[in-house]
Write a structure and sequence with these properties.
Structural class: alpha+beta
Protein name: Serine/threonine-protein kinase AFC2
Pfam family, one: Pkinase
Number of strands: 13
Largest sheet: 7 strands, antiparallel
Domain Protein kinase: 97-369
Strand content: 15-25%
Keywords: ATP-binding, Kinase, Nucleotide-binding, Serine/threonine-protein kinase, Transferase
Helix content: 25-40%
Organism: Panicum miliaceum (Proso millet)
Number of helices: 12
């Protein structure tokens, strides 16, 4: 007997439910202006409360929701060695969804393109690995996405969660099906850089939404910027913090620089080499920050400076650092108009010391946006 528990389609209802259910489904939303009433910490607290309610109230446990065998279910298969769900194209994922194609795979699990038989539309379903830590993280993400949806009432900036359910020990999160990611688009176009006007528009949308929510997206990279139209984006994969983020992909790609340059800027997985690349592009790390380093950082920092090139692991590593251009040269190589404003904006956003870094609100008032938009008119 396999257990499936899923909420039927229903409009988003703020009234308390009579009983807890495994999952939820969001109906079509009207178009409204965002009315943000909570500060960042309050939003995070609310998100935490939602997440705790989801994970501690028995909602996740399939043992509390004994379902029945459904006709058309695929054969039971063992997960692969990494805990990923094993499927075949054409399988049903519950009677409601039919698997059409695999869209991608990551640390968390897989994303499948599926046909929603009830809504008669294609959706993207994130199938989380059947491992406790990833299941727990998925429940936090679900709580946060529900909370974000309350503040993005126009459904214009966040990727919308349609439904979620627990299927064969895999949390499945159903999203609207959108266009390719910024990274996919770059790859399909042979990594040709974007026009500066498009970079300005995308950056403005990102800054406006993050500023309104007062949250930090700790995994913002080209793979997590989805294109809805040539000038319109949505952002998925929210892992948020109101203070200092500690999670996220190690291998960061600066979204704006990737869009301008057409490729990842820091292509490394080594900490010291990564820091050396940052110094090469952005300039030296501030002494007042380096001197606070503890003994665990001695491999990277010696006598108040980065241990480079002394700590270099190989000649190839040295070459990888030295071939990188300075930030000013990087922009000048790829941008003609607005280059000066764009360089100044990037320098403000990429300050090493957070105390000296531009806030989202300050960045939105920068001449790169204000004067650039005026020129377009």
């Amino acid at each position: 007997m396999e257990c499936i528990a899923e909420m039927p389609p229903a409009p988003l209802d703020r009234r308390p439910r009579k009983r807890q259910r495994l999952g939820w489904d969001v109906g079509p939303a009207g178009m409204h202006q965002i009315q943000l009433g909570l500060c960042g910490q309050e939003v995070v607290n609310a998100i935490s409360a939602v997440a705790l309610g989801l994970s501690s109230g028995g909602i996740v446990s399939s043992q509390l929701n004994q379902g029945q065998t459904r006709d058309g279910s695929p054969p039971l298969r063992e997960d692969d060695k990494d805990g990923h769900y094993v499927f075949a194209v054409g399988d049903n994922l519950t009677p409601r969804y039919k698997i059409n194609a695999k869209m991608g795979e990551g640390t968390f699990g897989q994303v499948l393109e599926c046909w929603d038989k009830e809504r008669k539309e294609m959706v993207a379903i994130k199938i989380i690995r059947g491992i406790k830590k990833y299941r727990d993280a998925a429940m936090i993400e679900i709580g946060m996405l529900e909370q974000l949806g309350k503040y993005d009432e126009s459904r214009s900036s966040c990727v919308q969660i349609r439904n979620w359910f627990d299927y064969r020990n895999h949390i499945c999160i159903v999203f609207e099906r959108l266009g390719p990611s910024l990274y996919d688009f770059l790859r399909e176009n042979n990594y040709r850089s974007f026009p500066i006007a498009l970079v300005r528009e995308v950056a403005k949308q990102l800054l406006e939404f993050m500023h309104e929510l007062r949250l930090i997206h700790t995994d913002l990279k080209p793979e997590n910027i989805l294109l809805v139209s040539p000038e319109y984006i949505k952002v998925p994969d929210y892992k948020v913090s109101s203070r200092s983020p500690t999670e996220g992909s190690y291998y960061k790609r600066l979204p704006k620089s990737s869009a301008i340059k057409g490729e990842a800027l820091f292509q490394t997985h080594e900490n010291l080499e990564h820091l050396a690349m940052m110094e090469r592009v952005f300039g030296p790390l501030p002494y007042h920050m380096l001197k606070r380093a503890d003994r665990h950082s001695e491999r990277y920092i010696r006598k108040g400076r980065l241990n480079w090139p002394e700590g270099c692991s190989s000649r190839e590593s040295m070459k990888a650092v030295m071939k990188l251009p300075k930030l000013q040269n990087l922009v000048m190589q790829n941008v003609d108009q607005s280059a000066g404003d764009f360089i100044d904006l990037l320098q403000g956003l990429l300050k090493y010391d957070p105390a000296n870094r531009l806030t989202a609100q300050e960045a939105l008032r920068h001449p790169f946006f204000t004067e650039g938009l005026e020129r377009r008119r």
